[in-house]
Amino acid sequence: MAFDPMLQRQIMGRFATGVTVVTTRYGEQISGMTANAVMSLSLDPPLLVVSVDCQSNMHGHLTQGQCYAINVLKQDQEDISRRFAAPGPKDFSDLKLTAAETGAPIFVDALAYVDCRVVEVAPAGDHDMFIGEPVAGETYEGQPLIFYSGQYAQLSNFGG
Predict the structure, then answer these.
(1) pLDDT of residue 14
(2) What is the pLDDT of residues 52-64, one digit of tens each?
(3) Which of 60, 17, 50, 37 is nearest to 117 (CA)?
(4) Domain-by-domain residue ranges, the chain?
(5) Is residue 105 within 8 Å of residue 32, measured between CB atoms?
(6) 72: β partners
(7) Element spanning 80, H or E
């Protein structure tokens, strides 16, 4: 008997995650998506993973750009998370952006970022895992935006 994907979604919804916007640049075009399917894969060598639906526009953009930045959002950036989670083209016009090594957009007001070059793409069901080598990154002060059980949440006992 196959495992029910909706039950999987419910179970994994009980796993609190941070919220990120993954961005990329390919030529003069920039693109981004909200993601919590990101992880630190290895410290030696340093490697990170972003899991992306094979049917999404972002999949093609990452394939073309061969780079990405993971922008970790602060608790007051829920609106940005929602914007980049919505289907269709993304509006970057009101965001303060910078770039590091790869040219992928970095949110100036993020809690942290890591800039990566894609070193491998591994298929995994209906997603591909874009494995990236970090080439730049930074952390800042603030509280993280959290996603839990299908809703945005805050850490109540964290000094930040």
Answers:
(1) 85
(2) 999 999 999 999 9
(3) 50
(4) 5-151
(5) yes
(6) 20, 112
(7) helix 78-85
